[in-house]
Amino acid sequence: MKIKKNDTVLVLSGKDAGKTAKVLVALPKDNRVVVDGINLQKKHKKARSAQEVSTIATQSGAIDASNVMVVCPACGKATRVAYKVEGDNKVRVCKKCGAVLDSAKEAKDVKKIEKSKKAKKKETATAEETK
User: How many H helices and E strands in the chain?
Assistant: First the structure.
């Protein structure tokens, strides 16, 4: 999924179309994202004891990732996402201006995850060879 947590996105469709907000949660398995202040839903919370009060809370619901577009921090425009390899890192890039969308910290985290996946594959391969 090309959208990550803390990205600024533009909502393309639905009742909140045209609004810009920050991604709170990315759910890649479901291809959905939770965006701050978008797709607001009511949640009724029942009191669990005599001291508590029943309330109706408002929360942001998940929307499909295809209904949002990443806003480039450099050019400020909604853009599609491309990928580019810089050194040892694969980073997300703005299609319009070519600016890098990932911060240096995120790129390092992705690199660590890829290394751990490679290590696990090597461990399973050596375990199968010893059998």
Answer: 1, 10
Q: How far apart are CA 87 and CA 104, in angstroms?
A: 12
pLDDT tens per residue, range 20-32: 999 999 999 999 9
Q: Are 88 and 56 in contact (CB under 8 A)?
A: no
For the entire predicted model, the pTM comes to: 0.72
At 64-122, the pLDDT tens digits run 999 999 999 998 999 999 999 988 889 999 998 889 988 755 555 555 666 677 777 77
Q: Quickly list DSSP for the chain.
A: ----TT-EEEE-SSTTTT-EEEEEEEETTTTEEEETTSSEEEEEE--SSSSS--EEEEEEPEEEGGGEEEEPTTT-SEE-EEEEEETTEEEEEETTT--B-S-HHHHHHHHHHHHHHHHHHHHHHHHHHH-
Contact 70, 96 (CB under 8 A): no
Residues in the chain: 131
